[in-house]
Amino acid sequence: MTSIRPLTLAGLLALGLTVTGCAGYREGRGYIIDPQLSQAVSVGTDNKASVEKTLGRPTFTGQFNDNEWYYVSRTTSTYAFRAPKVIRQDVLRIRFDAAGNVTAVDRTGKEQIASIDPYNKTTPTLGRRKSFFEEFFGNIGSVGGVGTGAGGAGAPGQ
């Protein structure tokens, strides 16, 4: 019986190390939004310079309009080798008019995250499907043919 206890102890130790190796963790990314500072930005009184002094440079600006600034913060949780799951997301959007004055301050959360489901890992296309041999031998005779240029009989200047 004394030889079983060291084996049991070694097995429990190995199991414990395996379980702790698969522990989950949380990760925060992006801008850390301070509620007091973000509440300090007000419509009509602030401009781009004052917002930049208060909050700093934005995470990114609008793709089609430089007068929209976005401050994005995201917290994810991951367990072992699984894909990260979004726990919390905060987006602060500040809009400016042409003169650079704040016109709107909007806040959204993780409800704005889009879930995209790929379709069978292939992209459907219109047209007919070709077999392997049609793909492989389909261009024989078309390279350098009449009227195609690149050394063909109908190339200009010959």
Automatic annotation (TrEMBL):
Residues 30-105 form the Outer membrane protein assembly factor BamE domain. PROSITE patterns: PROKAR_LIPOPROTEIN. It comes from the Bacteria. The keyword Signal applies. Keywords: Cell outer membrane, Membrane, Signal. It holds the Pfam family BamE. InterPro entries: BamE, BamE-like, BamE_dom. This is Outer membrane protein assembly factor BamE. It comes from Sphingomonas rosea.
